[in-house]
Design a protein that fits this description.
By secondary structure, this protein is an all-alpha fold. Helix content is about 80%, strand content about 0%.
Protein backbone atom coordinates (compact mmCIF):
# COMPACT_ATOMS: atom_id res chain seq x y z
CA UNK A 1 0.00 0.00 0.00
CA UNK A 2 2.91 2.37 0.69
CA UNK A 3 4.07 2.02 -2.91
CA UNK A 4 0.67 3.15 -4.20
CA UNK A 5 0.76 6.21 -1.92
CA UNK A 6 4.26 7.04 -3.19
CA UNK A 7 3.10 6.71 -6.81
CA UNK A 8 0.09 8.94 -6.17
CA UNK A 9 2.41 11.59 -4.73
CA UNK A 10 4.64 11.65 -7.82
CA UNK A 11 4.04 14.51 -10.19
CA UNK A 12 4.13 13.93 -13.92
CA UNK A 13 7.53 15.53 -14.43
CA UNK A 14 9.10 13.63 -11.54
CA UNK A 15 7.73 10.30 -12.78
CA UNK A 16 8.80 11.08 -16.35
CA UNK A 17 12.32 12.02 -15.30
CA UNK A 18 12.72 8.88 -13.21
CA UNK A 19 11.35 6.80 -16.09
CA UNK A 20 13.94 8.33 -18.43
CA UNK A 21 16.66 7.36 -15.96
CA UNK A 22 15.32 3.80 -15.70
CA UNK A 23 15.34 3.45 -19.49
CA UNK A 24 18.86 4.87 -19.68
CA UNK A 25 20.10 2.36 -17.13
CA UNK A 26 18.41 -0.55 -18.91
CA UNK A 27 19.81 0.49 -22.28
CA UNK A 28 23.31 0.93 -20.83
CA UNK A 29 23.35 -2.66 -19.64
CA UNK A 30 25.82 -3.93 -17.08
CA UNK A 31 23.12 -4.84 -14.55
CA UNK A 32 22.31 -8.27 -13.24
CA UNK A 33 19.14 -10.02 -14.31
CA UNK A 34 17.57 -9.28 -10.92
CA UNK A 35 18.48 -5.58 -11.17
CA UNK A 36 17.17 -5.43 -14.73
CA UNK A 37 13.86 -6.98 -13.68
CA UNK A 38 13.54 -4.54 -10.77
CA UNK A 39 14.25 -1.63 -13.12
CA UNK A 40 11.70 -2.94 -15.63
CA UNK A 41 9.05 -3.25 -12.92
CA UNK A 42 9.77 0.28 -11.68
CA UNK A 43 9.58 1.55 -15.24
CA UNK A 44 6.16 -0.04 -15.67
CA UNK A 45 4.95 1.63 -12.46
CA UNK A 46 6.30 5.00 -13.58
CA UNK A 47 4.74 4.64 -17.03
CA UNK A 48 1.40 3.98 -15.35
CA UNK A 49 1.77 7.14 -13.25
CA UNK A 50 2.60 9.18 -16.36
CA UNK A 51 -0.33 7.67 -18.25
CA UNK A 52 -2.66 8.55 -15.36
CA UNK A 53 -1.49 12.18 -15.37
CA UNK A 54 -1.84 12.46 -19.15
CA UNK A 55 -5.32 10.93 -19.14
CA UNK A 56 -6.34 13.42 -16.44
CA UNK A 57 -4.93 16.30 -18.48
CA UNK A 58 -6.80 15.08 -21.57
CA UNK A 59 -10.05 14.89 -19.60
CA UNK A 60 -9.57 18.44 -18.30
CA UNK A 61 -8.86 19.74 -21.81
CA UNK A 62 -11.89 17.94 -23.23
CA UNK A 63 -14.08 19.39 -20.45
CA UNK A 64 -12.75 22.91 -21.03
CA UNK A 65 -13.30 22.61 -24.78
CA UNK A 66 -16.83 21.28 -24.27
CA UNK A 67 -17.65 24.24 -22.00
CA UNK A 68 -16.40 26.75 -24.53
CA UNK A 69 -18.44 25.34 -27.43
CA UNK A 70 -21.86 26.89 -28.02
CA UNK A 71 -24.88 24.67 -27.27
CA UNK A 72 -22.59 21.78 -26.30
CA UNK A 73 -21.91 21.03 -29.98
CA UNK A 74 -18.64 19.14 -30.20
CA UNK A 75 -18.06 19.88 -33.85
CA UNK A 76 -18.75 16.38 -35.09
CA UNK A 77 -16.53 14.51 -32.66
Amino acid sequence: MAARTEEAALGYEQARDELIEVVRRLEAGGTTLEESLALWERGEELAKVCRHWLEGARARLDAALAESEPDGDEGGR
